[in-house]
Amino acid sequence: MHVPFLDLKAINAPYMAAFEKAAAEVIQSGWYIQGTKLKEFETAFAAYCGVKHCIGVGNGLEALALVLQAWVETGKLTEGDEVLVPANTYIASILAITKAGLKAILVEPDAQSFNLCPKAAEAAITPKTKAMMPVHLYGQLADMTALKALTDKHNLLVLEDAAQAHGASRGGIKAGAFGDAAGFSFYPGKNLGALGDGGAITTNDDALAKALYALRNYGSEQKYYNVYKGTNSRLDEIQAAFLNIKLEGLDAQTARRIEIAKAYDAGIQNDAIQKPMWAGEGDHVFHLYVVRTANREALQNHLKAQDIETLIHYPVVPHKQKAYPEYAHLSLPVTESIHEQVLSLPMGPHLSDAQVQAVIKACNAY
Ligand SMILES: *Cc1c(COP(=O)(O)O)cnc(C)c1O
User: Fold this and answer.
1) What is the 3-state secondary structure (H, E, C) of 280-313?
2) Please, where are the H alpha helices in 116-170?
3) CA dihedral 88, 90, 92, 93 (to 10 degrees)
4) What is the whole-number distance in angstroms between the Cα of residue 267 and the centre of ligand 1?
C-alpha cells in the first residue's frame, strides 16, 4: 500500500470551500497587507496560546530572528552575547541567532527526548550567556520546568522555538506561553500550515510586542517615521485568512496525530526500532514520529520497498554544515549519533487507519 510521508493536498482538501470564500473576501476587500484578517488571526492565535500578544510575520525564521533583534535594539542583549540552543535542532534556530549578531552555543540534547538537556545547558553557561532558545523538537515540549529553573537562576531570556509544536501543552500551559517570547512557523508542512510562508511571535511583554510590530514593518511605528532599522516581514492577509480557518481545525488534527502515534507505539514491536519517548497526554503534538535504529538505511530501504515513504530530520548536523565552518571542530556525540540513527515515519491527518496498519506491519517485518 502506498503510504505518503505527507499529503498537503489531502490535509487542505476539507477546507477548500472555506478557503475559497475567505480568499474572495480578501481579494474583494482591496486590502492585502496588515488588515482585518491579520488582526483577527493575531487575536485568535494569542488566545489559543494563552498569551497577550501575537505578531504575525513572514515566516518562522524571521519570527525567531526578530525577537532577538528586538532584544538587541532595546538593550536587553548586546551583539556577541551567547544564546544556548540545542545542537540537533533544525538549522533555522541557529540562523536566527547568528542573523541577530549573537553567538549560538550548541548544547547537546537529552538522548531520549531529543530536546535540550538541562544539565548540558547549565554546564554551557558562561558570564556572556544571556539567553536560551529551547526548541520543542518534533512537536514535543522541552523540559520547560527544569530549563526555566535554570534561566531564572542565571537571569537568561527565553525564546521558545515553537515552529513544530503548535498546541502542545503541559500543566495547562501551551507552547508559546512558557518563555519571554516564542517563534512559530506556518510553513505548509507544519502542524498549523498556511498555503505559503507564514510565521508569528507570541509574548506577554507589551514593550517587546510594540517593538516587534515596528520591526516587522521597516522599523516604523508611524508611516514614514522609522524608530529601528527594521525589516519587511509581514504575514499576508490572504495567509492570515487561511490560518483563521485552519486554526479552528488544529485541535482535531492534533488529536488524530496523537491517535496515530499511539497506534505506532502499541503496534510496532521490533527490538531493532526504538520508538520515541514521550511523557504524556498533550505535551507532544507529533509534528513528526521519529524512531531510532542502528542501521537506518536498511530500515528506510525496507519500508521504501513496501511503498512507505520516510524522511530524515535531519541528515546533516548544524555543526557540520558548510555554512558554519566555525563549528566544524566541535564534537557533539549525542547529537551526531541521533543524526545517524533517526528516521521519521509517515505522520499526519492525511493517513488512514489502513495506512497506519501498513506501516506497523512493515516495521514489524523488518
Ligand atoms: C520550520 C522551522 C523553523 C523555520 O520556519 P520557516 O517558516 O520555515 O522559516 C524554525 N525552527 C524549526 C524547529 C522549524 O522546524
Assistant:
1) CCCCECCCCEEEECCCHHHHHHHHHHCCECCECC
2) 118-123, 144-153
3) -40
4) 31
DSSP code of 15? G
- Res 19: pLDDT: 98
Q: For the residues of 191-230, what is the DSSP string, one character each?
A: SS--SS--EEEEES-HHHHHHHHHHTBTTEEETTEESS--
User: Is residue 181 a contact partner of residue 197, using CB atoms and an 8 Å limit?
Assistant: no
* Cβ–Cβ < 8 Å for 356, 129: no
Question: How much distance in Å is there from the Cα of 93 to the middle of ligand 1?
Answer: 7
For the chain, the average pLDDT equals 97
Q: Which of 40, 94, 86 is nearest to 65 (CA)?
A: 94
Measured from the Cα of 197, ligand 1's closest atom is 7
Q: Is residue 314 reached through a cis peptide bond, with omega within 30 degrees of 0 on the bond before it? A: yes
State which H helix or E strand residue 256 sits in: helix 237-267
Cβ neighbours, 10 Å, residue 243: 28
pLDDT, one tens digit per residue, over 164-182 is: 999 999 999 999 999 999 9
120: amino acid identity, one letter: A
CB distance 11 to 349 below 8 Å: yes
Residues 302-313 pLDDT 10s: 999 999 999 999
Q: Which atom of ligand 1 is nearest to the CA of 186?
A: 7
Residues of the chain with pLDDT under 70: none
How remote is the CA of residue 231 from the centroid of ligand 1, in Å? 18
Q: Ligand 1, residues 140, 187, 312: which to mutate, most atoms within 8 A of Cβ? A: 187
Residue given cell 537571569 in the structure block: 155
- Give phi and psi for 203, each to the nearest 5: -165, 155
Q: How far apart are CA 163 and CA 146, in angstroms?
A: 21
Report the nearest atom of ligand 1 relative to the CA of 287.
15
CA distance 204 to 50: 9
Which residues are within 8 A (CB) of 361 and not within 5 positions of it... i.e. 6 or more apart? none
Q: 139 CA distance to ligand 1 centroid (A)?
A: 12
Give me the torsion for CA of 108, 114, 116, 117, rounded to 10°. -70
Amino acid letter at 355? Q
